[in-house]
Structure formats: C-alpha cells, structure tokens
C-alpha cells in the first residue's frame, strides 16, 4: 500500500524528490499565486493511486486535475486535448511505458512539464525518464508533498535544462 503524505505533515521539506541538491540544500517556496490554476494530468494504471493523488492534489487551490489516463495512449490523447501545464507520469504502464509516453508527448507538446512518478524504479528508469523529457522523478510513497513542491519548481525555473532538486538526493543518478 502506498502512503500518501499531505503537504506540511511533518515529513520534511524534501520528501521523495529525486534530483541534485542546491548549494544550500534549501527548497524554494512556491511561487506567488497568479490567480491561474495549474492544470495537471494524472497518468497511472492504478486507479486507486490516481484517485488518491487527485483528491489530495485538488486540496491545493492552485491545482486543478484536468484528466486521468491509465495507459500511454490515453495519456497522449488527453495531453493533446486538455493541454495541461503538468503531467504526472507513472513509469510502469500497460502496452507502452511512461518513458515512451513522455518521449512522445514531449515531441508533440514541448511546453508541457512532465514529472515521473513511480514506486518501483531503478537508476536506469530515472535516467531514461529525464532523457525522455521529464524534469523530475518522484516516489509515490512520498507523493503529495514532494509532488506539490516539484510541480511548483518545474513551472518556475527548471524546464528541460536540468532535473528538479528540492534537496533530498544530492547527486544525479549516473
């Protein structure tokens, strides 16, 4: 069973984000609200995980979940139709992987920020997601708090040039 952590629940400011550390190891605060909600597409073959993420993310007033996909094909269709700001992409999907879906969506919609999400991953998976165009990789076990921070970081300054860092891991996996 995956544990879902609510933002501010005392699990640490860097829960679950895989990336490289800043010189101070600090997490930047979320951006000041512009009044526009961030549009998020959830892609995960596990319906329960999608539901939990949706419920918890939508507790954040600046986040709107605009769609849910259970496989790579649905993800590509919904991404083109909904034009989300962020896609939370599970790496393990039926028929085609989240890595391949990330690659395809990144080709068609380079302005969309993709964040890899998985409970089972290897250093190869991490590197493959980043190479395919994801800006970060977050463990499901630490999902909501880490995703909340990663979503805000990815829309602010870390687009395609480097992976996200919110302080947990100090080096990029090689």
Automatic annotation (TrEMBL):
Q: From which domain of life does this come?
A: Bacteria
| Sites bearing 4-aspartylphosphate, chain numbering | 90
The species this protein belongs to is Nitrospira japonica
SUPFAM superfamilies reported for this sequence: CheY-like (SSF52172)
Keywords from UniProt, A to Z, are:
Phosphoprotein
Q: Where is the signal peptide?
A: none
A GO BP term here is: phosphorelay signal transduction system
Task: Show where the Response regulatory domain sits.
Answer: 39-155
Location of region: Disordered:
1-33
- UniProt keyword annotation of Repeat present: no
- A Pfam family (short name) is Response_reg
The name this protein goes by in its record = Response regulatory domain-containing protein
Concerning InterPro entries, the annotation shows: CheY-like_superfamily, NreC/VraR/RcsB-like_REC, Sig_transdc_resp-reg_receiver, ST_Response_Regulator
Q: Does the keyword Ubl conjugation apply?
A: no
